[in-house]
Amino acid sequence: MAMIEVSDLHVVFGTSVHAVRGVSFEVAEGESYGIVGESGSGKSTVLRAICGLAPTSSGAVRYDGAALKSPRQADFYRRVQMVFQDPYASLHPRHTIDRVLSEPLAIHGFTDRERRIEQALEDVGLGKGFRFRYPHQLSGGQRQRVAIARALILEPRVLLLDEPTSALDASIQAEVLNLLDRIRTERGLTYILVSHDLAVVAHMCERLLVMQHGKAVEELTRARLQAREATQPYTRDLLLASEGYRPLQDA
Amino acid sequence: MSLLEVEDLRISFPTRQGPVEVVRGVTFSLGRERLGIVGESGSGKSQTGRAILGLTPPPGKATAKRLEFDGIDLRDASAARWRSLRGIRLSMVMQDPKFSLNPVMTIGRQLIEAARRTSSRSESKDRAMAMLEAVQIRDPARVFKAYPHELSGGMGQRAMIAMMLITEPDLLIADEPTSALDVTVQIEVLRILDRLVNERGMGLIFISHDLRLVSSFCDRVLVMYAGQVVEEVKASELKQAQHPYTQGLYNCLPRIEGGQRPLPVLQREAGWAV
Amino acid sequence: MTRREWLLSDYPQSRRQARAGQSYRTWLALKSNRLAMVGLWIVLALVAMAIFAPLIAPYDPLIGGDLRLDRLQPPSWEHLMGTDDLARDIFSRVMHGARLTLMVVALVAVIATPIGLTIGTTAGYLGGWVDVVLMRVTDIFLAFPRLILALAFVSALGPGIENAIIAIALTSWPPYARLARAETLTIRDSDFINAARLQGASRLRILWGHVTPLCLSSVIVRVTLDMAGIILTAAGLGFLGLGAQPPQPEWGAMIAGGRRFIIDYWWVATMPGIAIFVVSLGFNLLGDGLRDVLDPKAVK
Predict the structure, then answer these.
(1) CA distance C196 to chain A (A)
(2) Domain residues for B151?
(3) What is the pTM (predicted TM-score) of this model?
(4) Pairing status of strand B90-93 against strand B171-175
(5) C22 lies in a domain?
(6) Neighbour-count burial of B123, counting CB atoms closer than 10 A to its CB (0-12 exposed, 13-18 middle, 19+ buried)
(7) Where are the domains of chain A?
(8) Of the candidates C11, C195, C214, which has its C-beta nearest A150's C-beta?
(9) Which PROSITE patterns does the UniProt record give (chain A) (predicted)?
(10) Which of residues 192-251 of B touch A (CB under 8 A)?
(11) Which residue of B184, B253, B261 is in closest CB contact with A241?
(12) Bigger pLDDT: B179 or C195?
């Protein structure tokens, strides 16, 4: 059975901005699913609609077979967590890492907070020394590790990743991608990863959905993407563009 | 003869713990070619580009043994000298057009204002329109009358490039000119720059964090790390780069074809920054 | 390890050390601003004057000396700021007046800041009709000139320093509410607030734990800068006879008292005037310095 099922999802902001137009897909338990698109394709909005940050105008989002209500129940947040794109914007500037990590535990009434915080920092490769630092004392990669630790501390089953590495340098991106990969294998998590970078999605996900102008263009498996077996012209354009610059032969 | 000569460029910023050098002895020369400067954030690549135009933000200080553009010493250039160079013979394209275009003036007026510096009033308008066409804007008349906020990111960046190129500069410094753009638009913008180098013989310094893009676009690449140039390679030979930093930077990128899992991680060595 | 190293450590070992370190960094930044330090010293001097007024003041502030010999004496070593028309020592009255001024300042800050902050952040974060209602109420308060509204309050409640304080407090919160709302709007949709929502944090928790601390610093700066205006309003009410009542040594009322003989006996009105000027300036300098340190948007 599908862990997350999105069927004919529409998201309309205000009265006129139709950001997502009828997107459907299913993600099985333990799978890593990618959504690729350029700015304005609605890829991030799909992610936000799943977790309730964007309004669902019509269609449905199901978790473990049950349709989700809006607003989401507290229980949902223990199962599904999100990592945001910009590590500089997703941590409260006046909260120490300790506070960032202990807050979700306090909200959901966990008792052994000390142990869990230390464990979470250990899991993302930061160690105890970082516990009482402020975000401005950390680098971009370290902040993103804290954001991942925050998402993991409630032990969710699904992680929504919104361009988790696009604000990071290439070498740091590799470290964070490896971390995410390792955590998924260790814990059997389900990922939905949104990115504009085909290479990142191809590396991280078994299946992917290409989106443009709020609509799904096509769904591909990793193997078919690697074999360049895209059927839609837009996907082919993306594939071509991701190879870098190529001078025009003879215009 | 080369267009730009930079020798031992150093840029330092004062801090509470004393001055910190962010660029430490960069030397290169540029002909009428596409030179890429690649590095991660904090490598000093952007500061290098700014220093060439004399735009080091205060309280930073830039010094060099030699900083010559077309035989003109830029080190102690007067304000009047800079006015006659900047935007006319030397131009710069920044990452985000939103911060570089005047939000309360139409694109057309800004273009004409730039064009007026080298040509007469009557010519300016024609040149502005011609320039918009040259950067592949499909409906130049509409863009001419539009305000910056009415344009998409790609259009805004093209308008910005049009403005920087309307005076037909000899040297263009492009600081991450396509990083804010979608990949498909990015290629089109690069095409425009490419044509200008080929047709007008302009010199281009292309500053970017994207090793793959730079290696496919430029002729030559300087790789910067911790304020120094660690390696200079021909773009086509980047895969055979010698320096472990360049290799690490190249290898840690994920590939569509798949490859190593986990990705090889860049192991920094203290020796590189000395 | 010295205390300084402990405070500036990049690897604090406890919550307390992290917080102390953060405060110490703010203090270091403030300390490097010389004008702000001047302001801080003036404000501290005001506090010291208020606390130790009975010890510093050489004479009783309310009971004057011999009306035949000691009236309207010019400044001398005996009476540093001269005496007034009831033969009271002006220096002693100014010292004791600091208590009243400090009380006004402290009470207004304690009353107005929380009101403005709560209304502003609530309106900004919740939006919708809550925002409309709260902001229209704020607009109504803003539409009256502060002194006039304070006058109306005082005439309704009766003259006296307590009523003047209440009146000033009730008229000074609207700008803070406006400011807090504007700040809230900019942080309401930021990712760290979204992240808190996704952890299941309640609205109250987000408002108090996440939004308010970020609005607090700019509101504190604004309140500090407004202190000069509040002191002047209090003095103005005193001057008009609606604030502190005689014989209380309120600076505004003292100026009003000295107004009649300002040509012949200039010091009677001037001395409390200088006190108002210096204290107002002190708060302004301190506020400017605090803005540089606390307001993240200010350009360094």
Answers:
(1) 8
(2) 91-168
(3) 0.86
(4) parallel
(5) no
(6) middle
(7) 2-241
(8) C195
(9) ABC_TRANSPORTER_1 (PS00211), ABC_TRANSPORTER_2 (PS50893)
(10) 194, 209, 211-213, 215-217, 248-249
(11) B184
(12) C195
Choose the closest CB to A94 out of C10, C201, C214.
C214
Q: Could you report the per-residue pLDDT of A206-242, keeping only the tens digit for each?
A: 999 999 989 999 999 999 998 888 889 999 888 888 8
Cα–Cα distance, A199 to B259 (Å, whole number):
11
How large is the ipTM?
0.89
Whether residues B83 and B212 share a domain: the answer is yes
Substitution target in C10, C24, C191 with the highest count of A β-carbons within 10 Å is C191
Q: Which residues 39-98 of A are in CB contact (within 8 Å) with C? A: 51, 53, 74, 77-78, 81-82, 84-86, 89-96, 98
In a domain, C290, yes or no: yes
How many folded domains does chain C comprise?
1
B225: domain CATH number is 3.40.50.300
Q: Tell me the average pLDDT across A174-192.
A: 93
The mean of the pLDDT values for chain B is 85
B211 lies in some domain: yes
The domain A2-241 belongs to what CATH superfamily? P-loop containing nucleotide triphosphate hydrolases (3.40.50.300)
Whole-number Å distance between alpha carbons of C77 and C138: 51
| Domain annotation covers residue C235 | yes
CATH of the domain at C208: 1.10.3720.10
What is the distance in angstroms between the Cα of B116 and the nearest Cα belonging to chain A? 33
Cβ pair A218, A208 in contact under 8 A: no
pLDDT band at C145 (very low <50, low <70, confident <90, very high): confident
Instruction: Please tell me which residue, C204 or B177, carries the higher pLDDT value.
Output: C204
Domain that holds residue C273: 44-294
Residues of A in contact with B216 (CB under 8 A): 243-246
Pairing between strand A190-195 and A32-36?
A: parallel
Least Cα separation, residue A110 to chain C (angstroms)? 13
